[in-house]
Structure formats: structure tokens, C-alpha cells
Amino acid sequence: xxTEVMGTKASLLVPVTWSSSRIIPAHLNPPSHMQVSTxxxxxxxxxxxxxxxxxxxxxxxxxFAASSTLQAVAVVQRxxxxxxxxxxxxxxxxPLRLVSMFSVSMSGRCG
Length: 111
What we know:
The protein is of the alpha+beta class. It has one domain (4-90). 32% of the residues lie in helices and 9% in strands. The protein contains 3 helices and 2 strands; from the N terminus they run H-E-H-E-H. It has a two-stranded parallel sheet.
């Protein structure tokens, strides 16, 4: 389940992200209770994980694992103490291959 804060952030980001494609899948405009049943037809997922409870990360993991279209996921998490592939597996993402790790600031710039 997505939190209200996550929904608010998404409502601001999604129109900008999809403006070039002119396609806004219905599931990217979630109902007021903020439950999302699928991430299809998205091919890539991105999330800040600061402040997201374990249950929220697990929900995203289930959606990612169930997706027939997602090919990649990027998460922003400071202070990762567990190997990333292990952390993602613990949240139900299934087998993943770590492509890269890098520093970012909250403004999204590479550090």
C-alpha cells in the first residue's frame, strides 16, 4: 500500500515523466485509498525509500515480482548496510542483478 505522501509525490512527478510519451496508464492515477494492483505496463520503476516502512517495500517487491513488463528498478536509500541484492530479495523482488551503485543528493544530482 502506498502512503499519502508517496501518492502526492507521484501525482507531481508522473505528469512530467509521461509528458513526452503522452500515455498515462490508468494505474498511475491511483484511487484515493492508494492501492495499486499492478505496475504493468511500466518497464522501469524508481522510488525513494527514506521513510517507507518495510511493509511498503515488500508491497513494491510483490508488484515488481508479479510484473510481466518491468525490467529494472532503482531505489534511493541512504545507509545501506545489507548487500543490495540481499536487501531486495528480502523485500520479495526475486532474483536481481546489481548494475550500479552511486551517490545521489536529495535533489537527484550524482554526487
